[in-house]
User: What shape does this take?
Amino acid sequence: MKRRASHTQTYPWHEGNAFEILKDGEAFYPAMLAAINQARHTILFEFYLMESGVISDRFIDALLAAAERGVRVYVLLDDMGSSLLKPADRRRLQHHHLQLYIYNPIHWRKVLANMYRDHRKQLTIDGQLTFTGGMGISDLFSKEIKATEAWRETALAIRGPVVGDWQQAFVENWQHWHDQELCLPPAQTTPQNLPMRGRVVMTIGGQQQALKHSLIQAVRSAQRRIWITTAYFLPSRKLRRELRRADQRGVDVRLLLPGAKTDHPASRYVGRRFYHRLLRDGVRIFEYQPRFLHVKQAICDDWVSIGSANYDRWSMRLSLEANQEIDDVRVSQQACELFLEDIAESEEILFAHWLQRPLHQRLQEVFWGWIDHLLESLHHWRKLERRNPFRRRPPP
Assistant: This one.
């Protein structure tokens, strides 16, 4: 019997990469579809969110066309995240030249194990180009379809040696669930003209939280700025403490969070209960106003992290996550420019105004904070970790 792949969490730093930040669906969807249409050998397609609609039809058509011309196509979807993908669309993906796997199918007998999800977002083409970020394959991210209601999102196009690590991360995840070994051509990791430094960092639910530790270290080391954008603000106690300490030593600490337009209002109220102490200690908090802010990005000086992780404790405990970390002044400048563009469309929460917020908001924060605390208390995390599908031994 073959040994299944081990799960690396932090890959080494590589020089010689090229990173391009893509703002919103009108930038990243055409680039991703063009890459699929130009694929010659392999397509690795791993997404949490995939819903039936115009955008998913375009991607399914492109994947099937690639499979028909002989490209090896591997599709890995999360069962919960793809729950709104119609059965007819799933059947279309069951093409004889395309391999589809559904991650951790939901079943009532699994109980707590159903909570483990594959939240990663990755499209890797021919071992040469990777796209990652917070996006899903859904009309929700398309201004063409949703106009002013399209979710605000950021993605990365990646070339260079780190693409090999993205490919390896997919292989490790795929082979955990398949007895047949996935043999791919070596990634074409030719160093790029722009010698940008980067590494891939992942979190595997219930195990060591490399993404969280990496962010904490970046926050501790920051001297000039810590600008974090996240769709769901449920930070650990340690991260909150380090943000306050950074502000006290003179670092410009800003949090860019969703405003009233969100897909999970309860999560927003839970996160808002942390505002008081952060604002009191000088951390600046902004809430994005035009549409739902779904970006997952952290900037600490010239260090940038973009990917699937929201930096909330639930995500870190229960999900497969993967981020691209970059140490490059050019990328950080571009990320900062986009951050400031979003800040210009946001409302800053001032401490004096926060103290005067309406009673009904306070009650919502207390209620949902109590629910969050109750869930935290009721979950037996050691028992939950034993149900982690990544802890299963392979069958004999």
